[in-house]
Design goal:
By secondary structure, this protein is an alpha+beta fold. The protein is built from 18 helices and 8 strands. A hairpin with a 5-residue loop joins strand 3 and strand 4 (219-222).
Length: 507
């Protein structure tokens, strides 16, 4: 019996031990379950964080790729001919609309979101991120023609400012001041010459073929004429016949300005951007205009520097004159240049005592014959202006031939004698000389041209030139974006969405 009790006791101990082990195992299971739940929550949280952060990173990368892709579609001809970068929103069609560029942006974004090259990438991106494009729109665009062409002018300045020194600007300002102060652009000499000729003509009508008594006591019939009649006959031939070596080689190119950007701007028929543009201050505008002019001189043709592919051969002359044909533009600039030189030459003759004495002698000889001393001042003025005109023809002809002419002449740079000038033989020219070149005089005329007018005409030339190239017959500058800002919305099938805004500009 004692032994039975002993076995029973040992069984109770074993049973208690088993129950204790069960309790401990239960505690361990609960502990592991709790730990696994925490670890699983942590893992799921980390996976969700990875998904969201990975999606955010991919969206930013894909957005940058998409924006760079549409910026890489800059117009090739615009860059090749004028070193200007801009997106052509027409993409070779007749329609310049923002929707075209938005469609290209959506295409690049979608292809980068959906394009998978291998199974691993498909599994990772397809299951983990599951991104898709929901919306892509351009919220802001800056067009080259915005702010009356100020954006175009600014981009042109950026394209060349690193290569242009401002030393020439100070010299150009000095030339302009001389022209303004002395009224060399007034053109009053021609009107003054016409008035003098009219008065002299009245005297000639009254006293021509009059009989005068000779020293020997006889009678002689005097034929009275204006000493500058030969020059006036030459003048009626037209400026281009007098200053061009070979008028037959003159360009016959013309444009239809009514179809170009300048006319559309006047008619308010252009596309407009909505981006802000900071124009230079008043203190910087002169320097900007100077650099812009240097850009135009570098990228556009002129007489003596032409390109066969240009719509007009004399483009700089068009910027100054605004005519539709090369011949009219060159004629306008040549006349303006001749008038400026005539004014400067007349001032030189007035200041030169020796040449004034020659003029007085020539006028006195005519008046002495008919004993009309009151006619002497009129003839002196006509002869002086005629001599100045003959010299100005020589100057313009020399400039167009590649020579140089100083703004103010001296005895060494003066060419025609009085007798040669009055004879009207104006065939001389020179490719040498010191002073200003034809391009320098164009600089002066451009600086005197209103900036907005100069810019509009420059844009006309750009448009006309690009339209001559294959596939660009409908090209429009008001469809060219130099800056775009896009708002992009991308979502995931896992329930989250991202919105991102990016702005890109050609620098």
């Amino acid at each position: 019996m004692g032994g039975g009790m002993h076995r029973h006791g040992r069984m109770d101990v074993r049973e208690g031990k088993r129950q204790s082990d069960k309790v401990q195992n239960g505690y361990l299971t609960v502990g592991l379950s709790l730990c696994l739940a925490v670890l699983l929550s942590l893992c799921l949280t980390l996976i969700d964080g990875v998904r969201r952060n990975g999606a955010r990173l991919e969206i930013e990368c894909i957005t940058d790729i998409g924006m760079h892709s549409i910026m890489a579609e800059y117009h090739r001809e615009l860059m090749r001919q004028y070193n200007l970068f801009a997106i052509d929103s027409s993409y070779g069609t007749d329609l310049c609309v923002k929707a075209n560029t938005e469609a290209h942006l959506r295409k690049y974004l979608s292809e980068n979101l959906n394009g998978r090259d291998d199974l691993f990438s498909n599994l990772i991106y397809g299951d983990l991120l599951a991104l898709s494009l929901e919306e892509a729109e351009l919220t802001k665009v800056s067009i080259l023609t915005d702010y009356e062409g100020a954006v175009f002018r600014g981009r042109a300045v950026d394209a060349i400012k690193a290569d242009v020194g401002l030393g020439l600007l100070a010299e150009l300002q000095g030339w302009m001041q001389e022209v303004e102060v002395n009224g060399l652009e007034d053109g009053k000499e021609e009107a003054e010459k016409e008035a003098l000729d009219q008065q002299i003509g009245q005297w000639i009508t009254e006293y021509d073929n009059t009989e005068v008594e000779t020293e020997e006591g006889g009678v002689e019939t005097v034929e009275l004429d204006n000493p500058t009649d030969g020059l006036e006959a030459k003048k009626k031939q037209g400026i281009l016949k007098l200053v061009l070596e070979n008028e037959a080689a003159l360009s016959a190119n013309r444009i239809n300005a009514e179809n170009l950007i300048g006319a559309r701007m006047e008619g308010m028929q252009i596309n407009r951007g909505n981006a802000e543009y900071e124009e230079p201050g008043d203190a910087e505008k002169l320097a900007e205009k100077f650099v812009f002019q240097e850009y135009l001189l570098s990228y556009m043709g002129r007489y003596g520097k032409v390109s066969a592919e240009d719509a007009l051969q004399y483009q700089i002359e068009y910027l100054i004159a605004g005519k539709n044909t090369d011949a009219d533009n060159l004629k306008n600039v040549a006349n303006r240049l001749c008038a400026l030189r005539e004014a400067a030459n007349a001032m030189y003759l007035l200041s030169n005592e020796a040449k004034r004495a020659e003029i007085k002698v020539a006028a006195g000889l005519v008046c002495t014959l008919i004993m009309l001393p009151e006619l002497t001042p009129l003839l002196e003025g006509a002869i002086l202006l005629g001599w100045a005109y003959a010299e100005s023809i020589y100057d313009v002809k020399s400039l167009l031939a590649g020579g140089k002419v100083p703004l103010w002449k001296d005895d060494n740079s003066w060419h025609y004698s009085l007798s040669a000038a009055l004879e009207g033989d104006l065939g001389d020219s020179s490719q040498d000389g010191q002073g200003l070149s034809y391009q320098d005089y164009l600089r002066i005329f451009m600086m005197f041209t209103d900036t907005d007018i100069l810019t509009a005409r420059a844009m006309n030339m750009v448009e006309a030139d690009i339209r001559k190239t294959p596939g660009n017959s409908a090209f429009r500058l008001d469809g060219c974006y130099e800056m775009v800002e896009a708002r992009i919305r991308i979502g995931s099938s896992h329930g989250f969405h991202y919105e991102i805004t990016r702005k890109k500009r050609y620098q």
